[in-house]
Amino acid sequence: MPSSAAPLRPRRRDFDETRVRILGAARNLVAERGPESLSIAEVARRAGIDRTTAYKHFRTRDDLVGAVMGSLGDEIGTMLERPMGFGDLIDHMARFFIEHPEIGRLTLHHLLAENPFPRAGWDRFVGQLERLANSSRSQEHIDAEALGHIMMAIAVLWPIQLRALEGDIEPAAAAERLAREIKRLLLFGVLRPESWPDLVDSIAGERSE
Amino acid sequence: MPSSAAPLRPRRRDFDETRVRILGAARNLVAERGPESLSIAEVARRAGIDRTTAYKHFRTRDDLVGAVMGSLGDEIGTMLERPMGFGDLIDHMARFFIEHPEIGRLTLHHLLAENPFPRAGWDRFVGQLERLANSSRSQEHIDAEALGHIMMAIAVLWPIQLRALEGDIEPAAAAERLAREIKRLLLFGVLRPESWPDLVDSIAGERSE
DNA sequence: CGTAAAGTCAACATAACTGTTGATTTTCTT
DNA sequence: AAGAAAATCAACAGTTATGTTGACTTTACG
Fold first, then answer.
1. Which nucleotide is closest to the Cα of A11 by its C1'?
2. How confident is the model over B142-189, as pLDDT tens digits?
3. Residues 6 or more apart from B92 whose CB is under 8 A from it?
């Protein structure tokens, strides 16, 4: 046999690796400045390659933007799909977004572009919360979808707010603080209900839908 | 007297109003696409004025971006400074961000640009929460600053997530749902603590700092 | 050592935006 | 009707980006 079965494709100067480098630079740029202001020229500069090389991997600017945003879906999906206990999920989300702020930034840009979360991952996530909400281990009348929005909002935005307010942060400590506050909130809330009869009344009334 | 006291400045074709129109168009554009991709050319097109007119109001693109972001600080400050009860504050925030999604979007872009909230407004807001946290009407060990981040994250991001998932929404209903879920969360949390001994343990241990 | 893939380089045509300038027109006040 | 502020218009020079093309160089496999 002239060419063996396994490595059918010879890779002279690893085409795929170059593609990955381009995507990486592009992802950082989108995370920093948003998809609208991504330019292939700048990406090539950052990746340290020639502009025309980039064009051999992505025919247009929009292709590149699409590839970046697509990879985001995978990443968030992977994070959410790992099956585990609820406490672990919170720890995991907190660590994930603190350690990968660029993914949180990408997510925000994604939402700002009026795109919903990738359906599959989001549905799985909300499904998990729904099971929790219907179990005897949670309070009554929990709106699972709303809870999903809330958890996502906190997880994605907190690291960015923190960085904006305090500059560089110590990841491990920040992740712990974030996870702790989410847990405290979910377990006990913030207010003593007996001191807020009006508030309690105002949500006790009707079912939401 | 040739020129009387009160209206010293004659306004032929209301300079100030034109400025406001420019700022409005610019704000919408920044809210949509982010500060990086604001162009004076596009702003002028949207405001229905000549490009050079815009340059008479704002010498450079960056001046315009600065003016837009500056106005954001005022707006959020005004919203937060209105003194009132906690329940009203939640209702007010929910309504505000549902009814003015562009301000939420601006806020996100502001945070993504690594800028902290305008100090004055933010400090007042956190101060309010701190007083609450130290009162007997709240649970113990509440981290007021963390709570501020959380509330802001929810209020700003929820409307955007909702729009992304469901397209157009009915503002009044959406605001009510948002306020209700925040209140429920703050009052009761989500989980029944007695069913989550591990979680309770994991946050009971040390003080955060 | 030859060959082909992977990448570089220089150049070109288009397009959009930035600021700036000077002449002109519109609009309002007095 | 005069005069001046506010706005328009046309033009210019400079920058940066988009895609595309063809010739060239580097790298590594067999």
1. C5
2. 999 999 999 999 999 999 999 888 888 899 999 999 999 999 999 999
3. B79, B82, B84
